[in-house]
Fold:
Amino acid sequence: MSAAARRARAAEEPSPAAEHRSAQEYGSVEEYAEALAAALRGPARAKARMVAEMRDGLADTVAACADAGLPPDRALERAVREFGTVAELAPACQRELTVAQVRHTSRAVTLTLPVLAVCWYLLLTAAHGTGRAPSAAQWLAAPFAGAATVAALPAAVALAVTGPLARRLPTPRRLPLAVAWAGTVAGVSVALATLTLAAASPLATHGPLAAFAGAFTVVSHVAVASSSRACRACARA
Structure:
């Protein structure tokens, strides 16, 4: 956990009595780590690294308490009291994971636009090469691509404000939910574009090309939709 997260935890110190009761809830370091993991939402890898870091830190604290002569159960209780309970640490940890999820979702959304652009370029080039005008289904998908483009703009802004600029500017409180909804709009737009591409594929002269473009939009939809759901869960955590 970062220094900022530890400062946030220190600012929310509970009373000694409440701290003592909470410290007795954990039977082992692994149980503590499992409780922390269950309380957090965010990217799987970032969450696993954070939980592993906290587990190792608590294990070191338990070892230090044991070296001071405390029995195992008392050493764990003292270590949790000094290190912080799950209820104390989870809010600060969740804030870090939420920012990580915002960046993950923003990247997924901003990648949607290039994928759609490549797909449409290939399809329209193929239609022009055969001397035929693009089909109605192909034109119908244009507004969906436009909606995905609009959704990519706030996602790109989110990448900026949660990157190096985040060290100088605070992260807007509503940013995670805004990015989640932008991802939802992009995901739905890609799904509708997929349907129109699938409808156009049997009628197209270059059917395999249309199918390839449709497969790309399916991959984009799956990535964006799943990441948006995770971002929404983080925003509500």
Summary: Residues 3-21 have pLDDT under 50 and may be disordered. The radius of gyration is 24 Å.
